[in-house]
Design brief:
Chain B: InterPro entries: AA_ABC_transptr_permease_3TM, ArtM/GltK/GlnP/TcyL/YhdX-like, MetI-like, MetI-like_sf. The complex is a heterotrimer of chains A (226), B (219) and C (257). Chain A is mostly helical. Chain A is built from eight helices and no strands. Chain A is 78% helix and 0% strand. The longest helix of chain A is centred in the first third of the chain and has 39 residues. The termini of chain A are far apart. Chain B has 219 residues and is mainly alpha-helical. In chain B, helix 1 crosses helix 4. Classes of the chains: A mainly alpha (226), B mainly alpha (219), C alpha/beta (257).
Chain lengths: 226, 219, 257
């Protein structure tokens, strides 16, 4: 059994790995941004009642069901080689972004639906009766409360996006996991490289959670708990 | 170039069976991991809620499983086990990692479930003459279960989908089987479509049933 | 003193039996655990019943037959070949593994058993006919292979590392080129005819300028008795005519020069 650890090559590769960790963060953040926009649209589309909007509603229902009931890796493969069969070719970065955004949107749609339900419609009417415009009522009364209700799930989804972006290594993206694999395959010191990658992921996730908590404190401290 | 051997062959009816067998593999892997993970997680959750002294150790430890990508956990464990002289099949290694991962998630949920039943209520149960075990079983369990049931179903479905990652260890579950078929038939879209349908059939009924159940419980 | 020597002798004997080599392990286990890359037609692939077959698979079976044990085929990706040996999950790997000095720091190699040339498969629309045409093109190869490393050296000289795409398997390389994700993919001369025949959008590309790939059977680095056995096996496969027979069956013409 060859159980001698060789850490030196890993330490030499550390700058590359840390650089790749920033790619991971970028991909995760971007996919969250797209996911939030699409998720909001899906959440609203699902509650359309007009018969003319039925196709949009069904699209939203199907999107959410597919995103939540198939593995993220499957979704990546689909955007990668599945769509490639139709001649739609995306770079590894685009594949991961599309896959993660698709997945994020499906989960966030449900989160936002819950968030909007957390604000009773009566508050809107009350705000209007106090002389606020619709816009004012939205930005000052409804949205802050929704934001607070979805803040925690949003943070979770961001962490989830960071973790999921590691699947990029299976479609050729050199984010943290992909870079780790590329480096490890040169020396075949798999364990050492992935152990270091695990530590970097842990630190990144912890920093994210901490940052989200600090931001929540800044954003919501004026608010008394409901 | 000899023509006696064909390297690429088209999709056949028997390949559906191949995928179905692999879906069964996915089901076995996830069911076992969820069972072990839930049992372990409930125990850990109980310790977190009731034995405060365990928190400084357990909380950061369980945190690791939730802060490191599962795929990295799998690769690490699979490459570590032989170093200590053990041989584990991809299935067994996948099971261990998925179980630990599920346990870490369930522990958090179980703890929340126990803590959701307020101390006054539990004290009231105890003052009615119930033993600790009785209070747990007749008061905390039924009430806590209701609050955490949706979250637990979420974990179950999550683990089922995440079992697809065990494909990187070489275990032939649904996703690996579809890759094998894509290699042979070169019909990526079709094979992926069938595999996706299998996943959907495994996952969607459970989430639909859980959503209905949740509604009924909330009423 | 005598007693101490005796104790030392006994413990030494004990440690000797504990260090039984792979050859003994395989015979005791009655199973040869053999790693093969199965997305590398015609060397390793799956038949229409999804059973492993190909040149390397036959070699596994021949080795098992020589040892009079059962064979367990372990499908691996390119990048998993050496870890399979390092972690002891497999006894031997037949996986077109180039015998580089870098890898020999980690695993042991037999004498070479097959020779390959790196060759491109190119997308018909790419307009690539010569090696120089590859400048500025998107090139795909499988992660953890020698062609990948060789290409990255050239790409670095050209300042085109950004155009490289690494995939998990040979098959994903073919798909990527066929679908147009990449303009050209690096594979071996043995795979090119089969792949080009399968995909309408692919055609045979240029040979790569680096030297031929001598590939060896892989075993644990420290296990010299096992590597000796593998050497003998490789040599006898050639002498018995089995090598020529299998190469002709799966690859076609005798190895190109």
């Amino acid at each position: 059994m060859n159980s001698n650890f060789h850490w030196r090559p890993v330490l030499r590769a550390l700058p590359d790995l840390i650089q790749a960790a920033f790619v991971t963060l970028e991909v995760a953040a971007l996919s969250m941004l797209i996911g939030v926009v699409l998720g909001l649209a899906l959440a609203m589309a699902r509650d359309f009642t007009a018969p003319a909007a039925a196709p949009a509603r069904w699209l939203a229902v199907a999107w959410v069901a597919l995103a939540r009931n198939t593995p993220a890796l499957f979704q990546l493969y689909f955007f990668g080689f599945g769509l490639g069969a139709w001649g739609i070719n995306m770079s590894p970065l685009a594949i991961v972004l599309a896959g993660l955004s698709f997945n994020n949107a499906g989960y966030l749609a449900e989160t936002f639906r819950g968030g909007f339900r957390a604000v009773p419609a009566a508050q809107m009417r009350a705000a209007l009766s106090l002389g606020m415009t619709r816009m004012q009522a939205m930005t000052r009364i409804v949205v802050p409360q929704v934001l607070r209700a979805v803040w925690h799930p949003l943070t979770n989804q961001m962490v989830w996006a960071v973790l999921m972006s590691s699947l990029g290594m299976l479609v050729g993206l050199h984010e943290l996991a992909g870079e780790t694999q590329a480096q490890a395959s040169r020396t075949f010191r798999i364990f050492e490289y992935f152990a270091v990658a695990a530590v970097i992921y842990y630190v990144v996730v912890k920093l994210l959670v901490l940052g989200a908590r600090l931001m929540a404190w800044r954003l919501f401290r004026g608010w008394s708990p409901a | 170039m000899s023509n006696t051997v064909t390297y690429f062959t088209g999709f056949r009816g028997a390949d559906l069976l191949f995928l179905a067998e692999a879906a069964w593999g996915t089901l076995k892997l996830s069911a076992l991991s969820i069972a072990v993970g839930t049992a372990l997680g409930v125990g850990l959750g109980w310790m977190l809620a009731e034995l405060r002294a365990t928190r400084p150790i357990l909380v950061p430890l369980l945190d690791v499983f939730r802060s490191v990508p599962l795929i990295i956990q799998l690769v690490l464990f699979f490459n570590f086990v032989p170093m200590i002289g053990l041989g584990l099949s991809p299935f067994a290694a996948g099971c261990v990692v998925l179980s630990a991962y599920a346990a870490a998630l369930v522990a958090q949920v179980a703890r929340a479930g126990i803590e959701s039943v307020g101390r006054p209520l539990r004290r009231a149960a105890r003052s009615l003459g119930m033993s600790y075990g009785q209070a747990m079983r007749h008061v905390v369990l039924p009430m806590g279960l209701r609050t955490v049931f949706p979250a637990w179903v979420g974990i179950v479905l999550g683990v089922m989908k995440d079992s697809s990652l065990v494909s990187v260890l070489g275990y032939v579950e649904l996703l690996r089987a579809s890759q094998i078929l894509i290699t042979r038939t070169q019909e990526a879209l079709f094979v992926l479509g069938v595999a996706g349908a299998f996943y959907f059939l495994l996952s969607w009924p459970v989430s639909w049933w859980a959503a209905r159940h949740e509604k009924r419980w909330q009423q | 003193m005598k007693r101490i020597l005796l104790a030392a002798a006994i413990s030494l004997a004990g440690s000797v039996t504990a260090l039984a080599d792979t050859l003994d392990d395989v015979i005791d286990r009655s199973t040869l655990r053999c790693g093969v890359v199965l997305d590398f037609p015609p060397i390793g692939f799956r038949d229409q019943n999804n059973e492993p077959t190909g040149f390397d698979v036959e070699y596994c079976k021949d080795l098992a037959a020589a040892l009079d044990v059962e064979v367990e085929i372990i499908p691996v990706t390119w990048a998993e070949r050496l870890p399979l040996i390092v972690t002891g999950r497999g006894d031997v790997v037949f996986g077109a593994t180039s015998d580089t000095l870098e890898r020999a720091k980690t695993v042991g190699f037999s004498i070479p058993y097959a020779v390959y040339f790196a060759q491109m498969v190119v997308n018909k629309n790419s307009g690539i006919t010569s090696f120089e045409d590859l400048r500025g093109k998107k090139i795909a190869a499988a992660v953890g292979t020698v062609p990948e490393q060789e290409w990255l050296k050239i790409a670095k000289q050209w300042g085109e590392e950004g155009n490289y795409q690494g995939y998990q398997s040979e098959n994903e390389v073919f798909l990527a080129v066929a679908q147009g994700k990449a303009d050209a993919g690096i594979t071996t001369n043995t795979a090119v005819p089969a792949v080009v025949a399968k995909f309408d959008t692919l055609e045979t590309g240029p040979r790569m300028p680096w030297q031929a790939d001598y590939t060896s059977v892989v075993g644990p680095r420290h296990d010299v008795t096992w590597l000796n056995y593998l050497n003998l096996f490789v040599s006898r496969q050639v002498r018995s005519g089995r090598y020529a027979e299998l190469w002709r069956k799966y690859v076609g013409a005798m190895h190109p020069t």
